[in-house]
Amino acid sequence: MIFLKRQLPIIIAFVAGIMMWIRYYIPSEVSTNLEDGYLEWVRIIVGFAAILGILSLLQHHMLKIRMKRPGFAFSYVTIAAFAMMMFAGFAPFNFPGFAEKNMETGSLFNWLYEFTFIPMQATMFSVLAFFIASAAFRAFRARSMEATLLLVAAIIMMVGRVPIGDLISNATPTFMLFGNEYHFIDFEEWTGWLLNVPNAAAKRGILLGVYLSQIAISIRIIFGIERTYMGGGD
Amino acid sequence: MDFVTLILNLDRKIIFGCVALLVIWPLLVPIQMPIGTTPEVRSIFAAIDALPNGSDVMIAADYDPSSKPELQPFTYSLLAHCFEKDHKVHILTLWPGGPALIQQAIEEVGAQYGKQSGTDYCFLGYKPGNAAVVGGLTNSITGTYPTDFYNRPTANMPIYQRVQRVKDCDYIVDIAAGATVEVWIAFASAPENVPMSAACTAVSAAGYYPYYQAGQLDGISGGMKGSAEYDVLLMDKYPNFKNGGPRVAGNAVKGMDAQSAVHLFIVLSIILANICYFIANKRQREERRNA
User: Fold this and answer.
1) CB-based contact (8 Å) between A39 and chain B?
2) pLDDT at A41 > cutoff 60
């Protein structure tokens, strides 16, 4: 049992990791076929993970209903919505009033998606605008130098990335410098500079750090040093 | 209660009400502010426009309804632009909530141009596995997607008699709400040497500038503003989009008035709140000094 739980996953990770690594540097028909097979396996495993996710979701909500935990009534809604969408998607017949079956345009599934799923998800996301406006009004204060810099950058970005920014910029007087004409306020220029200079510099540093860490963690997994992905502590 | 105290203790319901009003009002009574275009979006438009007619464009629409207002207009405009140029479109999604949105877009735009599924475009649908799917596409499109979204075998489709893998495509565009742009760059665009652009949500656009500067992305379209810019470029270059012709572009342009109004409101309210905050602080200091 210890072999299946400990050694076997390490061996699989080592063989698969080394194989894919070498394949990258030796492109040939054999290595391409090998990669094809490997990627197909990954897609199959991910498919099973989706099933596992569905089972986990159902188990969680059924347990909540059984234990009558706070808000358990919403679990009925989740399970009912899940069952309804699944039935609408898989049923091999046309529902009354719908010209198509399964996921075709004009099917019940498509109707449910368009008139329930899309508006509900869009609503959830749209509500953010209200909370962001309220939070910015209450908490966005120039309390320190860093906060002031953030505040100024945020204001430039917010105005500069909408058409009203162009209107304001074009309404300001211009001046000549080295033969070029500039506006006193030029939101497009300022937002471009913010995105291309400080933002890109910071992001590049973060990305380099992230990818170097990914390489390090991949090597640790391939050589069996990092084992937390197996669920254990060591 | 004086003005400063009133502002600092303003009920958030008033702010919610103002935001709601500023979103609804411009949608009912459009102001139609002129929309300027940025170099990042002009680059995407120029790249698609410069492809010879009938080129193959792979579009990954990796988003779901939560990002629909920001990204769906871009999908519509990009599809219209591709079909205007008679490009062959290979469209897919790595997001499970995305297929029905793409289905709407591709069927609507395709019908307006009289394009045939399997010949002029192919909607490959959704497959889980992000990098595994993109990696698979670099070896074989029909092998990774043996059937399209409508369960029709892809191997026999006319569109796949010429195109076998991502390398055979002339351009890639990832319309992404998440972190799939990196996946497409790392596993498809860079190793296969296929030029690529990205359209993403406004909040994630800043994160892709290193790739844009490195030339790994030809252009970036950020949020609804980017979609509106693409609409403007499309309408300027192809006047039939403005009136009478295929009316598929312009959805993002309509939203820009509302977005401008709300952004301006937030900026003004932040400035006002900060002024009041400093006045209140000054008063407190003076009171302490006097006491």
Assistant:
1) yes
2) yes
Name which of A113, A137, A157, A186 to mutate to probe chain B: the one with the most chain B Cβ atoms within 10 A of its Cβ.
Answer: A137
A contacts of B267 (beta carbons < 8 Å): 155, 158-159
Residues 7-36 of A with CB under 8 A from B: 32, 35-36
The DSSP bridge partners found for residue B196 are B172
Strands B56-62 and A180-183: unpaired
**Is residue A108 exposed (0-12), middle (13-18) or buried (19+ Cβ within 10 Å)?**
buried
Which residue bears the tokens 């210890």?
A2
d(CA A114, CA A6): 47
Which residues in chain A (202-221) have CB-CB distances under 8 A to chain B?
A: 203-204, 207
| Tokens 């790249």 sit on residue | B47
Report d(CA A139, CA A123) in Å as an integer.
24
Report the C-alpha gap between B30 and B24 in whole angstroms.
10
- The ipTM, to two decimals, is 0.85
CA distances from A64 to A58, B9, B56 (A): 10, 40, 50
Question: What global pTM score does this model have?
Answer: 0.89
**Closest Cα in chain A, distance from residue B90 (Å):** 19
For residue A21, give both structure tokens.
């690594």
pLDDT tens-digit map of A14-25: 998 998 888 888
B210-215 contacts, C-beta under 8 A, 24 or more apart? B210/A200, B210/A203, B210/A204, B210/A207, B211/B181, B211/B182, B211/B185, B212/B40, B213/A196, B213/A200
Are the Cβ atoms of A203 and B209 closer than 8 angstroms? yes
Is B159 in contact with B129 (CB distance < 8 Å)?
Answer: no
Q: Hey, are the CB atoms on B104 and A50 less than 8 Å from each other?
A: no
**B4-28 pLDDT tens trace:** 889 888 999 999 999 999 999 998 9
> Any chain B CB within 8 A of the CB of A5?
no
State whether A133 and B266 contact (CB < 8 Å): yes
Nearest to B128 among A47, A130, A162 (CB): A47
